[in-house]
Amino acid sequence: MDKLDWQEWLIGIVGVWLIASPFLLPYTPAEGASALIPGGTAFIMAGALTLALLLLGWLELAAWQLGAGIILAIVLIISPWLFGFASVGTSVFNAVVSGVVLGLAVLGEWVLPNDDQRISHH
């Protein structure tokens, strides 16, 4: 790999944001509740998975990794309702926007692969 494409940069930024966002987004917990924003653990796990898929893609990008990225984006988008934090607007916004950006970046990687055509379809 010679250089990172815009899709890879964007995927990496989303992964780092997902890990950092539970600590950076404004949230005032109820007394005795966790200081993490609702959905924070899910965001951290999704960010770690995003970065792991990106690192695997640097070695040799395979179609299954792109499929996993799309699935991860969809799960992020529906996670507020899936994991029960849909009542917290900041968490919903973070999940939906991060999922859409991740999905668009992964689709961009699939539809507009870089010049070396690294996608292995076997």
TrEMBL record:
Pfam families: SPW (PF03779). The chain crosses the membrane at residues 9-29, 35-59, 66-86, 92-112. Residues 6-104 form the SPW repeat-containing integral membrane domain. The keyword Transmembrane helix applies. Keywords: Membrane, Transmembrane, Transmembrane helix. This is SPW repeat-containing integral membrane domain-containing protein. It comes from Histidinibacterium aquaticum.
